[in-house]
């Protein structure tokens, strides 16, 4: 292996505190998003879909109106949404382009993207461009979280604590010091859990480890985990909760012999920790997360 393996992912994931701060301050761009009270759909593919899930939960919880999240290929446009918010790093994903074309002239489409030269710009009613968060690595890190930082700020959340927590994670200042506990990067299997807006983060954490290091991962609503998925918990495996855990969950997981992980940091900063683990596991296995097998930067389907 050389120092160049995973170099793009490393640069991009470590830049997240800076890109979050920049996105949080983009007040004019945040004003382009649907106004409170609008009934909207938020769409994306892969990682962007999971960020859409998080934004949908946050927007509704903030009282800004009914907000549904869908993969771009499964949007029920007959429901008559007031607007569609599309998240896409490249702006070239086939399903997102096709959706924008289908609703053009009938439903406003606001896009949040990384590449502001993409063909989606011409189809959108409003564009929020984050080129400073775009990436060269196939495996996404900073674009997804930077988009979510902007969206969190748009519903009135402060990102100050999240930024500070992410910086501490990157510096290793808050790594757990559980005596005798194996390193987080050494688990045989990972189950990621969330509640509310952090369910999307759990799904994204599982995807990151699968994409980058071909690891065995699963993800669930925390309350749903005990309705069957906990059967996979065992010694050498890990159950990771984003945000506060429900009473009794830790004890039930630890009774299986699995390790339960929950860090008292902003959940988006905890996702940065997963990014770092994903990179380390990939490199240790002789894999390059900048160019993972079977994947490309954008899914462009043949006609």
Automatic annotation (TrEMBL):
Alphabetical list of CDD domains matching this protein: SIS_GlmS_GlmD_1 (cd05008), SIS_GlmS_GlmD_2 (cd05009)
Entry-linked Pfam families: SIS (PF01380)
Domain (SIS) ranges: 28-169
User: Which InterPro entries does the annotation name?
Assistant: GlmS/AgaS_SIS, GlmS/FrlB_SIS, SIS_dom, SIS_dom_sf
What are the UniProt keywords, alphabetically? Answer: Repeat
Alphabetical list of PROSITE patterns matching this protein? SIS
Give the matching SUPFAM superfamilies. SIS domain
For this entry, the protein name equals: SIS domain-containing protein
Q: What is the lineage of its organism?
A: Bacteria, Bacillati, Actinomycetota, Actinomycetes, Micrococcales
């Amino acid at each position: 292996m050389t120092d160049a393996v995973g170099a793009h992912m490393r640069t991009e994931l470590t830049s997240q505190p800076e890109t979050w701060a920049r996105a949080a301050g983009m007040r004019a761009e945040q004003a382009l998003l649907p106004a409170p009270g609008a009934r909207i759909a938020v769409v994306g593919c892969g990682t962007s879909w999971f960020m859409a899930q998080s934004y949908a939960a946050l927007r509704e919880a903030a009282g800004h109106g009914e907000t549904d999240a869908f993969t771009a290929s499964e949007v029920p446009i007959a429901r008559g949404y007031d607007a569609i918010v599309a998240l896409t790093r490249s702006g070239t994903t086939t399903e997102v382009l096709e959706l924008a074309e289908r609703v053009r002239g009938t439903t406003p489409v606001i896009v949040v993207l990384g590449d502001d030269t993409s063909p989606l710009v011409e189809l959108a009613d409003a564009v929020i461009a984050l080129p400073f968060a775009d990436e060269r690595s196939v495996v996404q890190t900073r674009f997804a979280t930077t988009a979510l930082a902007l969206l969190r700020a748009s519903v009135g959340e402060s990102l100050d604590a999240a930024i500070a927590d992410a910086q501490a994670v990157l510096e290793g200042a808050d790594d757990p010091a559980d005596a005798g506990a194996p390193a987080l990067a050494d688990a045989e299997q990972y189950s990621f859990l969330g509640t509310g807006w952090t369910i999307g983060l759990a799904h994204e954490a599982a995807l990151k480890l699968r994409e980058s290091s071909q690891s065995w991962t699963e993800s669930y609503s925390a309350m749903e985990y005990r309705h069957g998925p906990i059967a996979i918990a065992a010694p050498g495996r890990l159950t990771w909760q984003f945000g506060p855990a429900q009473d009794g969950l830790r004890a039930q997981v630890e009774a299986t012999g699995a390790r339960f992980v929950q860090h008292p940091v902003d959940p988006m900063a905890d996702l940065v920790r997963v990014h770092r683990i994903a990179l380390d596991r990939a490199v240790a296995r002789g894999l390059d997360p900048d160019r993972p097998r079977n994947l490309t930067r954008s899914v462009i389907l043949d006609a």
